[in-house]
Amino acid sequence: MSEIVPQNGNVLLTWEDLWVTASSLKDGNKAILKGLTGYARPGELLAIMGPSGCGKSTLLDTIAGRLGSSTRQSGDILINGRKQTLAYGTSAYVTQEDTLMATLTVKEAVYYSAELQLPNSMPKSEKKQIADMTMKEMGLQDAMETRIGGWIGKGISGGQKRRVSICLEILTRRKLLFLDEPTSGLDSAASYYVMKTIASQCQGRTIIASIHQPSTEVFSLFHSLCLLSCGRTVYFGPASAAID
ABC transporter domain: from which residue to which, for each copy (predicted)? Predict the structure, then answer.
């Protein structure tokens, strides 16, 4: 693996000989990830793919530093070539399940999040400006006044909810973004729009997404692919070369 030195505070994330073992009363110790090596580069969108149960979400959680207490890991995770933990505010993680307040409008949800996440020293007018710009980047400008909806009644679509969740996580312009199956539960059109919007955020960011059975159109948006099977890497390289 050639060494790449990122500039301008960007994040090159590398994992080497990564093993993860889970322990349970029923199964004892079981290896979930088995000696994985790979990297995610600034300005690129990396897909983690493979069949159900192959370790996609476990790999994502491991490199994001979100493993549970019942698991053990070995191997190295490097930030810009060094062993170190991610500094606070460097990364954001979008979960598979949306955790949005159904009673809020899109604008209210994003404004409230901006108020909480952005520095206290920042004027409210600047926070609103950042929130408005981020909603526009996510293609949410036409849904700003619509309630998110859910148990209270119909609201925005599933694809729009996913984009709101992403919007809340990129308000602070974090350099490293993790997404756990961002197209789960969406139809093909909504999946493509969500992933195209995510791909548009690659400039200056390192983006890693676990994804299950993407369409050809969605897959074409990824720069790199990490393909897993039974906890092992069976392909790592350019996404376009995996089709050939």
Answer: 13-243
Reduced to 3 states (helix: H, G, I; strand: E, B; else coil), residue 195 is: helix
Q: Smallest Cα–Cα separation from 11: which of 76, 94, 85?
A: 85
- Taken in order 32, 37, 41, 44, is the CA torsion positive or negative? negative
Over residues 50-84, the pLDDT tens digits come to 999 899 999 999 999 888 888 999 999 999 988 87
Q: How many CB atoms lie within 10 A of CB 206?
A: 25
Ramachandran bin of 47, using left for φ above 0, alpha for ψ from -120 to 50, beta for the remaining angles? beta
Asked if 207 and 177 touch (Cβ cutoff 8 Å), the reply is yes
Q: What's the rounded Cα separation, in Å, for the pair 60 and 65? A: 9
Residues 6 or more apart in contact with residue 80 via CB below 8 angstroms: 5, 6, 11, 12
